[in-house]
Amino acid sequence: MGPALIWLQYGGKEGIRRYLWSLAILILGITLIVFLQYHAFDWVLSWQMWLIVVVGAYLMADPLARQTLSAGADWVQWKRRPKWYERRRDRGTFLKIYRLTKIEGYGAGAVLYLQIVDEDGRGIDRTRTELHPDRRIWDLMYNGIQHSIANGCEINSLAVQMLRMENSPALRLRESADEE
């Protein structure tokens, strides 16, 4: 594998932002529920409720989470710092993007995911937005996806729509090779 060309790390500011949003959602939610039921704002004076709000927001947001995304000319890797309860379990996943064997789109609830598997059986399940947080990484990945599709990678119709590849030269090249 070649050297890393692009490297991104998420964490600090995003974690604080997630925590503040979680805090706001919990405060508004509890205030609305208590007001509709009791027509009062007395919960604000209870330290036990504030403890629930602070801990609940922390559990919802996981503000200390760190995720690293790196990419080389022919590979991409996701790695996140393990949680305190995961011990030393490695949560890194890398793919050889020019040697993909399967790209499948599927829905889980209201969210659409892409499952991408390379020739060694390593795979990822990510939403479309998680696949391109940075344009440079997405360009490297998209080139590898196009190359793999032209060389016979399995892809379903939902994945074609999610990747917006309806008029892709890779699909046309593959179709012309199948006709011969």
* Physical arrangement of strands within the biggest beta sheet: 1-2-3-4
How do the helices and strands follow one another from N- to C-terminus?
A: EHHEEEEEEHHEHH
Looking at the structure, the CATH topology of the largest domain is PH-domain like
- How can the largest sheet be summarized? 4 strands, antiparallel
Helix content: 40-55%
Features:
about 180 residues, 6 helices, PH-domain like, 2 domains, 8 strands, alpha+beta, four-stranded mixed sheet
Please explain how this structure is put together.
With 180 residues, this protein is α+β, with helices and mostly antiparallel strands. It folds into two domains: 10-61, no CATH class; 70-82 and 90-179, PH-domain like (Roll), CATH 2.30.29. It is built from six helices and eight strands. The strands form two sheets. It has a four-stranded antiparallel beta sheet with strand order 1-2-3-4. Strand 2 (67-71) and strand 3 (75-80) form a beta hairpin. Helix 1 (12-38) packs across helix 2 (47-61) and helix 4 packs parallel to helix 6. The longest helix has 27 residues, at 12-38.
Short recap of the structure:
The protein is built from six helices and eight strands; from the N terminus they run E-H-H-E-E-E-E-E-E-H-H-E-H-H. By secondary structure, the protein is α+β, with helices and mostly antiparallel strands.
